[in-house]
Amino acid sequence: MKLSLASLALLAASASAFTAVTPAGRASTSLNILAGTQSATERVANVMAARPEENEAIDALVKKNFPGAISNKAMETKIASILEAKGFTPANTLLCTSLCCDELARNLEDDLNKVYGHNFNLGGLSGFPFAGNTGFGAMSAHVPDDGFCLLVHGPHVGISKDGVIGKVERSGIALVDNCCGSAIAASNYLKGITDGGAKITTKLQQFSDFQQGAVQELILPHGKRLNDADNRMKELPYALYDSQDILVRDIINGGKGGIKQGLALLSGIQINTGPDTLDYFHPLRFDYYDADGNVVESMIDELSS
Ligand SMILES: [Zn+2]
């Protein structure tokens, strides 16, 4: 990627403007959401009242294909209550996410926005934390004084109502198409390398598609694992998760000096279903970091109990 001096100066200027945002600025943008005295658990109950009821057939289908998955409704209710017991409130918590660009990845994020206020977004294609160390540092500075961060990340995968993994129905679109499109494109790129057929290209590290270029680089260590999988589309989000898990924890570790009272890291696989049914999440990590940036507790068992 080649950037002109003018572009670099522009990037530097926008980065300094970014870090200049104060917690007071965040409070004003989130004022409407954070107004009121409802607890996080009360807010989750209100949010869930507007979501579809659990559908027995979809519930069985998702849990058969993704053992360990729970509905977003069940998960959000539990995380709000587990974190409330630790002192996380809507007013003292900044939600930070690293989820795919796909609008289906907003379902979970929108719910949590209604509980904790607007999120700081670290994520990009496939859910990778493209905002990196700079994004995490800025986010930490925006956590209310003596407050908490809830960081949620993960890749996502669709499942259609007839059980096809990697496809999902979308509102207003007849074609039942790929989900996650970025992950599947990266998987196809990798298959071209492991099985042959990859094309020589002059478009390496193009700025206009650098996120997908990074996803394709980060999927490379999983070539054998994906080729050996019984169902490549089912294995794909777990392979990407393993890469993301390393990257996100490395970024937290690099910026742990900025953690205020504590940070909860919830990560796993988002499972998107059609527009009339609930989404699901397979939690794979729910760690609590203390003010010194050390992981002092795993809360994952409380989520599945
Ligand atoms: Zn996606």
What does this structure look like?
This is Limiting CO2-inducible proteins B/C beta carbonic anhydrase domain-containing protein. Residues 1-17 form the signal peptide. Keywords: Signal. Residues 69-289 form the Limiting CO2-inducible protein B/C beta carbonyic anhydrase domain. This protein has 305 residues and is an alpha/beta fold. The chain has one domain. Helix content is 45%, strand content 18%. The strands form two sheets. Strands 1, 2, 3, 4, 5, 8, 9 and 10 form an eight-stranded mixed sheet that branches. A hairpin with a 2-residue loop joins strand 6 and strand 7 (173-178). The model is unreliable at 1-32 (pLDDT under 50). It binds zinc ion (ZN). The site of zinc ion has 7 residues, from helix 9.
Write the layout of secondary structure elements.
Layout: H1 5-19, H2 23-29, H3 31-34, H4 40-49, H5 56-65, E1 70-71, H6 72-85, E2 93-98, H7 106-116, E3 120-121, H8 132-141, E4 148-153, E5 156-158, E6 167-170, E7 173-178, H9 181-194, H10 210-218, H11 223-228, H12 232-254, E8 262-272, E9 280-289, E10 295-298, H13 300-304
Parallel strand pairs: 2-3, 2-4, 4-8, 5-8
Antiparallel strand pairs: 1-9, 6-7, 8-9, 9-10
Bound molecules: zinc ion.
Pfam family, one: LCIB_C_CA
Protein name: Limiting CO2-inducible proteins B/C beta carbonic anhydrase domain-containing protein
InterPro entries: LCIB/C_CA (IPR040703)
